[in-house]
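Continued from yesterday's entry.
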Amino acid sequence: MTSDVHSALYLSIPFCRTKCSFCNFASGVYSRDLFDRYVAHIEHDIDRAPALASEVGASFDPLLDSVYLGGGTPSVLAPGQLDRIFAAILRVFKLLPTTEFTVEVAPGTLSDDVLASLLRAGVSRVSLGAQSFVDRESHSVGRLHSRDITLRDVARLREAGINGISIDLIAGLPYQTAESWEYSLAEVIALAVPHVSVYMLEIDDESRLGRELIAGGTRYHAHHVPDDALTVALYERACERLNAAGIVQYEISNFAREGHQSRHNLRYWHRLPYYGFGVDAHSMLSAPTPSDPDRALRIAASDSLDAFLAGAPPEITIVSRQQAIEETYFLGLRLNRGVELLAIKERFGIDAVDDYREAIATLVADGLLAIEEGWLRLTPRGRLFSNEVFAAFLRA
């Protein structure tokens, strides 16, 4: 990590107005009585961050290049609760003038008071979970907003001076067709936002929608979910349309105008240190020793809200050299630029490349990977089968 790169902070808010039928994240609809208890635990954990880092032998850098509040839906918190979280961050950490400060917002939850809280904290970027601009599609998975509400929230953010706006879209929602997808793409392009994320709907077996699909039932509009071929075609069309509009793909699911890539997510893909607070949040901290200057620790909070509120201690593990090599490949390959093989060899030794030559050759022959001027990257087809590609780099 270079001297001009500092830390990042992720904070998980596991509360939602409604639980999307496809979601299996550590989030849900809870009583507001829990919100204050949760915020108090977050405040405590943030206040303890320097001491915890010292206890486990990790470096502590209070300067933040990026802050990201995700979930769940952070904007369902009361403005006063958001203010408390922001104040806790600033008690322990320092924001730079250039810090990217992102908060995820569900359209329709951006009240005037919540917006005022974001402005007081210096939030510079908002990620809006629109999912679709066709109301039937977004409502089919449990979203409560409409197209008009999304457009209104974008306008209100811009009027308030927050121009760093990202819109999420999902390919493969119930009732989605090639024609309706063209409409959503046209809408997001017309909004001229600087960042768009496009996800192919992944049906988790433990989600309500996933269980219904397995059962062959009709609840949650399961019988109107597009087949895999159409979902892939929708994703490929999004790549084509967004790239042509100057919203250029830089990662499997992410597209941005020049200079507007998500700085926070880039940290994950580049394996730079970050702090995580809240349910199911993870930290990765540098913890060098004389014999291992690249040593890193992963600190994982419980994925159970009850356990988290009961004070369950985090799980702390050392990131092994082999794990670091594997992560360097499968995280770096998510980026369109890919990974530089020479840089991997210089950091981990020649065996970190040689041990994978056969797997790489097979993936190149299968048209899933390409090598150009020392850079290894996914092909367009490889992005569709990225999980299979990444699995080839796991040795455990």
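--- second protein ---
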Amino acid sequence: MSTAVQVQGLNASTPTAPVPGRPQAGRKRMRNAIVLVCAIGLGIAAATWGAVSMYRTVAPSASVAVPTTRVKRSDLTLTVVARGSLRGGNSEMLTAPLTGGGEMHLTYLRKTGELVKKGDVVAEFDPTDQEYKLKEAQADLAENKLKVEQAEAQSAADTEEARYALQKAESDLRVAQFDVRKNPILPAITAKQNDLALQATKDREAQLRRDLDNRGATNTAAIAVQKAAVAKADIELATAQKNINSLTVRAAHDGYAAVRSNQSGNFMFEGMTLPDYQVGDTVRAGMAIAEIPDLSNWEIAANFGELDRGHLSPGQVVAIEVMAAPDKKFTGRVADLGGTSGPPWNRHFESKIHLDNPSPELRPGMSVRIVVKTDTLPKALWLPAQAVFESGNRTYVYVPNGAGFVARDVKLLRRSESQVVVGDLAEGQVVALSDPQQESKKKEVGARGPALPK
């Protein structure tokens, strides 16, 4: 018992000497094994990632859900659908008055859709310039009338003076004639003087008579000049008053105001919508500012896609649905096909359609839906328009091929905005409704998530 205690005590107090070399070698082998396992794990992960990436590259559509449809064969009625709005037809165009070609400022303007009666004021322009011209014309007229009165008074005075001088010359002539009668009893030299005095008096009387006629003609011409100035001032006064009256634009018939876009001095960028005219805007003479459509003659302004232009023609019958009156069916006829406009990715044209059967509850600006049946093709092979793709001169669809899709060229026979008649495809053929490659890219972007800001 005591021996065991001693041994235990000895072990507890005295450390045992280690065996040289053995523990260090074990730890080294363990580290090498851990490094080897990690390297093998990294290699397996890299190989797995490479295989997944290669699989995604070779067959991207295998894991992407691409919507599909089938080629159908049936009697196909091609339709063109568009939306538009009601407005009155036979519009009366209201323009800025021609008042010398200068710029004018709007001081009053009706709002679009506001009902007006015949003779109601639709727009007014600032009359300050024309009122100034009116006052100038009034002043010129008064001044020229005064000049006419002065010319007439001067003419009367000159005529009276010339007549007095003529009468005096006639009296002197008679006296000279009496003196000449006394020549036989007078000395020769005195008689000669009387003859000379008589001749001088005759010449003076004749000259004064001619002067009287000439002065009358001169005074008449001067008065005519002043009267012409009065007539000119009178015309200027009437023109200024007419211009002032024209600055107030009135409706010629019942209807509603439709304010036009402000194109005075603006630069039109592609796809840009110009604002309507409003009070305070500057307007050039002759510019259209508004129109008054005739409510007894309805028409529809509808925008059609550029691809549908070839399917429409003037006089074509259309079906019309007014959103505010869903229970009533309306019909109309294509009246006019406007010019194509809009950006390259959204080309369209505005068409005017006359309404055949108007109704009392119709109002300007109501939204409508237009359906035009353009043609009926018996037993046609057709697809939705979004299933057909174009690149340059090539038209193709995507058909299944193994785990993915491949492009296949097709012949395009007819096309509308929503349907396409094709050849070179069999009835029931499955085709993609979207580009599989684009769908794959969308999925990859979604898997990676949004890019973090740098």
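The first strand starts at residue 68 and ends at 70. The mean pLDDT is 79. Will compare against the first tomorrow.
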